[in-house]
Specification:
alpha+beta; about 25% strand; 2 helices; 4-stranded antiparallel sheet
Length: about 160
């Protein structure tokens, strides 16, 4: 005796389930690769920001040291003609005292203008320029952050097809 009901077809349901599982697997792979790319970009940004702050700290210490030399000259009433040579003579020692494992410093002076460059290992640079003025004062005329281009970077491979 037949009750008139048709049998349930497993074929279309299985095919639909297979398509859904493949779509979910593809979305999972894309989510993982996107998360890895975001993590790598975040790490690079954190290193970049860290190097920027290290350069800023070194440059601020350098400016404070220059300000200290000028303050001593004001107290001792050093001749204005002797001041540039005193600062120029102190620049190598100032740059050496600021240089460390994270940041290197170079400084020079020409025509009453002190130029200093602070460079982090990553290539992040900070270039400053201090113009000495009458009355044992100074003006910061340049404070510019740059990055050296390095074509030999260790670029990350987000996805590599199997051979």
């Amino acid at each position: 005796m037949s009750n008139g009901r048709g049998s349930v077809r497993i074929g279309p349901v299985s095919l639909l389930t297979l398509v859904i599982v493949l779509c979910l697997a593809t979305m999972a792979v894309l989510s993982v690769s996107t998360a890895q790319a975001t993590f790598a970009a975040t790490e690079r940004q954190a290193d970049f920001t860290d190097d920027t702050y290290k350069n800023e700290v070194a440059a601020q210490r350098f400016v404070a040291d220059i300000d200290g030399i000028l303050a001593e000259a004001r107290l001792e009433k050093t001749s204005g003609a002797l001041l540039p040579s005193a600062i120029e003579g102190a620049l190598p020692e100032l740059a050496a005292s600021i240089s460390n494992d994270d940041t290197s410093a170079e400084a020079s002076m020409e025509n009453g203008v002190v130029r200093a460059t602070f460079t982090a290992k990553s290539g992040r640079c900070l270039e400053i320029e201090i113009t000495l003025r009458d009355g044992y004062t100074y003006a910061i005329t340049q404070w510019k952050a740059t990055t050296q281009w390095n074509e030999e970077g260790d670029g990350e491979t987000l996805w590599s097809p199997s051979a």
